[in-house]
Amino acid sequence: MTTTLSTLETPALLLDAPRLHANIARMKARTAALGVTLRPHVKTAKCIEVARATDGPDAPPGPITVSTLREADQFAAHGWTDITYAVGLTSNKFAHVRRLLDQGVALRVILDSVEAARALAAASAGWPTPVAVLIEIDTDGQRAGLPPDAPALLDIAAALVGPGVRLDGVLTHCGGSYHCHGADALRAMAEQERAGAVRAAERLRAAGFAAPVVSVGATPTALFAAHLDGVTEARPGVFVFHDLMMEALGACTLDEIAVSVLTSVIGHRPDKGWTLVDAGWMALSRDRGLAGEFTDHGLGLVCDAAGQPIDGGDWIVTAANQEHGLIAHRSSDPARRLDAPVGTLLRILPQHVCATAAQHPAYDVLDAAGQVVARWPRFMGW
Length: 382
Hints:
Elements: E1 12-16, H1 17-34, E2 37-38, H2 48-55, E3 64-66, H3 69-77, E4 82-88, H4 94-102, E5 106-111, H5 114-123, E6 131-137, H6 152-159, E7 165-172, H7 183-206, E8 213-216, H8 219-224, E9 233-234, H9 244-249, E10 259-269, E11 274-277, H10 281-284, E12 301-303, E13 315-320, E14 325-329, E15 345-349, H11 353-357, E16 362-366, E17 372-377
Parallel strand pairs: 1-16, 2-9, 3-4, 4-5, 5-6, 6-7, 7-8, 8-9
Antiparallel strand pairs: 1-10, 10-11, 10-15, 11-14, 12-15, 13-14, 16-17
Helix pairs in contact: 5-6
């Protein structure tokens, strides 16, 4: 059923299908050129239809990465069986992992401590299907994992013994790439990520452990890597949609951002220069993206109903209450007022699309003419 934006209740989460497909094609061409398997991180979209678009209309379900076991459940129920759960595993999730394995899911999990490895090896000893394990490597000092040269790497590998576990290799995510300024810095960070992961895998192999998988992640490093020698797969996620953070890094342009929030003007405060809309932080999230390091777009960049930035991008959501967004000129000059009567439809480009999409139950999908042609549900929770 085709409808128009004017018939949607706002706020609504819009997905531009042509941009989505173009972004997917770009990443698939990129990973093919780098000679690695694309294992997209589905946490960004949390949507079956987006994952199908990533695989291709006639392709079987391919390898994916998830950030919750609920995601694994949802995708497994729709035919995806090659799944990496890329969050450190704890014992209160062992039973859930077992259920997925029993359903025929080829599940990989990650961990980064001897304690976790021993606990999993002991708990899985009687499982009919072994669980594959990747040791998480920290290649940028941003989050979890072991440094590539940490002595404990081999201790963890040695603890992964028993009939219920299998060491498959290493995994890393270079979140530091989100703080790189310029293409040269992004290429250097991509090489740091690649080299660290490969170094850890080489140490495992030299010590007699199997490490067939070398998995790296992040959209910026996948797009800027000079090469990925020694790597077997990449796990970008936000590439399907992009957002203002990716635009700030140079990973996309504004007209490649595929998701926006449709909102209606509900009032004005002329004394303050505000235009009020019905998209507050419940629709946009409170994520400010990279405002402290790059251009500050507040809680989102304001566009007209067709998705074009107004006045070259001078209007932003400067603040938000639960259901009210406050739009003002980025100069903070109250004399600058947006010419948008009550009822005017606007679109807000998100700072961090993962956080913004997480506020909504579904995407209203637009075709090339800007008509709503489908509604794709997304799921939430753990």
